[in-house]
C-alpha cells in the first residue's frame, strides 16, 4: 500500500495515495462527506461524532452480511472475515453509545441521523454488492478522516476550548479505562480504534485488488 504520512498534533495518520479510478472515486466521495460534516458541525466535535459514528457503524454490518451470504453460496469458510467486519460494526456502535453521553443530540440531529443512515446504508449496500474493493477503500478513507477529526478534537480539548469532562461509565467499562478517566482518554482510544479500521480496510481493498480473499484477524477494533 503506497502511503504518505501526515503528522497532526503529534499523531501519524498514513494516507493511502489513490491509484486508479475506483480509488479516486472512493476518495472523492469521502471528501464530499467531509465537506458536509465540516459545514454542518464546524468544531462541534461531540455532535459530529454522534452523527458520523452512526454512519461508520454501517459498513462493517453490510460487509459482514454480504460476505456471510457469499460464503454460504460458495459453501466455504470465511476464515474469520465476517466476524471481523461485524466486530468493526459493533466497535463503531460503541463509539456512538459513548458520545451520546458526551453530546446529547438534538431532535434535529436525530432526524439528520435517520436520513443520513437511510441514504448511506442503501448507497453502501449496492456499492459493496457490486464493487467490494471500492467499498473497503471508502471505509479506509473514511477512517483516515475520522482519525483527523479525533486528533482535532483532542487538540481542542488540550487548548481548553472543549471541557475535559469525566469519561462516561460505558467507555470506562468497554475500554477498561481507569476510574478517573476523562474525555481526553476516550478520544485517544477511539482514535486508535479508527486507525485500526483504517489500516484493515485499506488492506482488504489491496487484497481484493490482487485477487486474494481477505482473512479475519484477532484485532478487537
From TrEMBL:
Keywords: Electron transport, Iron, Membrane, Metal-binding, Oxidoreductase, Respiratory chain, Transmembrane, Transmembrane helix, Transport. The chain crosses the membrane at residues 111-131. InterPro entries: AOX, AOX_sf. The lineage of its organism: Bacteria, Pseudomonadati, Pseudomonadota, Alphaproteobacteria, Kordiimonadales. It comes from the Bacteria. It is found in: Membrane. The keyword Transferase does not apply. Its main location: membrane. It holds the Pfam family AOX. Its cofactor is Fe cation. This is Alternative oxidase.
Amino acid at each position: 500500500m503506497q502511503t504518505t504520512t501526515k503528522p497532526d498534533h503529534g499523531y501519524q495518520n498514513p494516507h493511502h495515495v489513490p491509484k486508479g479510478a475506483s480509488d479516486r472515486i472512493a476518495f472523492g466521495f469521502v471528501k464530499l462527506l467531509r465537506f458536509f460534516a465540516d459545514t454542518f458541525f464546524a468544531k462541534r466535535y461531540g455532535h459530529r461524532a454522534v452523527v458520523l459514528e452512526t454512519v461508520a457503524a454501517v459498513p462493517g454490518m453490510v460487509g459482514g452480511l454480504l460476505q456471510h451470504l457469499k460464503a454460504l453460496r460458495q459453501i466455504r469458510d470465511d476464515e474469520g472475515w465476517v466476524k471481523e467486519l461485524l466486530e468493526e460494526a459493533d466497535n463503531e456502535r460503541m463509539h456512538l453509545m459513548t458520545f451520546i453521553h458526551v453530546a446529547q443530540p438534538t431532535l434535529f440531529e436525530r432526524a439528520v441521523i435517520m436520513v443520513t443512515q437511510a441514504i448511506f446504508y442503501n448507497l453502501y449496500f449496492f456499492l459493496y454488492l457490486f464493487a467490494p474493493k471500492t467499498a473497503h477503500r471508502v471505509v479506509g478513507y473514511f477512517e483516515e478522516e475520522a482519525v483527523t477529526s479525533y486528533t482535532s478534537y483532542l487538540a481542542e480539548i488540550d487548548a481548553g476550548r472543549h471541557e475535559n469532562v469525566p469519561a462516561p461509565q460505558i467507555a470506562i467499562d468497554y475500554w477498561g479505562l481507569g476510574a478517573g478517566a476523562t474525555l481526553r482518554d476516550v478520544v485517544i482510544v477511539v482514535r486508535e480504534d479508527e486507525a485500526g479500521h483504517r489500516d484493515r480496510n485499506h488492506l482488504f481493498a489491496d487484497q481484493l485488488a490482487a485477487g486474494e480473499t481477505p482473512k479475519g484477524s484477532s484485532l478487537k477494533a
